[in-house]
Amino acid sequence: MTVECKSMATPTSRPFLAIALVLLSITGFDLMAVVVKVLTSRGYSPVELSTYRNIFGMLPPIALMLFLGELKLERQFLILKKWRMALFRGLMVAIAQLAFYTSLSLMELATIATLAQSSALFVVLMSVLFFRERVGLWRSGAVVLGFAGVVLVLRPGSETFTLTALLPIAAAACYGFSMVSVRFFTDGESNGLLLLYSSVASILASVVMVLASTGFSPVSGWQDAGLMLLMSMVGGVSVLLLMVAYRMAEGSTLAPFVFVSILTSLTFGWLFFDELPVTTLFPGVILIVGAGALILWRERVNKRS
Predict the structure, then answer these.
(1) Chain-centre distance of CA 202, in angstroms?
(2) How far is it, in rounded angstroms, from Cα 126 to Cα 35?
(3) Which of its termini does the chain have fewer beta carbons within 10 Å around, N or C?
């Protein structure tokens, strides 16, 4: 899950409402994951579900941008200088979705949500790689701590470890790139236009992948069609809620609440699929969450100083 926070206006002072919207968006993303898990159990491939999500899920954010006047169908507005990078971001998002949806058909919700928190670690590493950022002792230690937690959750070498466990890590890496890469664009370039380019690229990439692999399966009845629409709209609205939340409060204020997804996914996994991988998650989950919290704390300290 990503949100475009570049070139937005200065956040207004409404932190409590923003936090509530973030929590709603997290719940929405986890509900979307539940629906994906149900649909894959009914024989639909992850790549075709990702395609439906990309096509219909972009409607709510675009509707809001049109309402706010942020998305204008004018030639000057539709030109983006670094359009290749914007399209490449969309490709990375499509790959992330494919890895994420595939993992949902093979793994427990809470395990996926926990490993997905490693995206913060990839953000730090890619910031060093692409922008030559200086990473001090605290953030370096956080990266080491976080990846130690990932190893404890994955447990490579054990009988329970499979290569499919690396799918959430791949998704986290691609989502991390989508977050870091917004810095390649200038502040004057439209946030809405960047979202549009990336969404179109995600749709095209997912359509190509589904046609080159499984193809589109016949939809078995109105119930499945309704679930696909629900999956897409809930995902799109959740992105929309994040966009609105980051307009109301600083990112450093909101980011710690993303860790709530581990609890919600654990709850939903237990309620809907009788999953309760507590012994698998601990103690690795503590290290992953602790690493993310440490990175966020250092970002806030650096910003104040």
Answers:
(1) 13
(2) 32
(3) C
Cis peptide before 283 (omega within 30 of 0): yes
**275 DSSP assignment:** -
Kindly state the percentage of the chain with pLDDT values over 90. Answer: 15
Match 């914007």 to its residue by tokens.
86
Distance CA 109, CA 131 (A): 34
Q: Report whether 109 contacts 269 (CB < 8 A).
A: yes
CB neighbour list of residue 204: distance below 8 Å, 6 or more residues apart = 90
Dihedrals φ, ψ of 64, to 5°? -65, -40
Half-sphere CA count of 223, side-chain side, radius 13 A: 4
Q: 10 falls in which pLDDT band (50, 70, 90)? A: very low
Assess contact for 81 and 254: CB atoms under 8 A. Answer: no
Q: Which two tokens stand for residue 37?
A: 């898990």
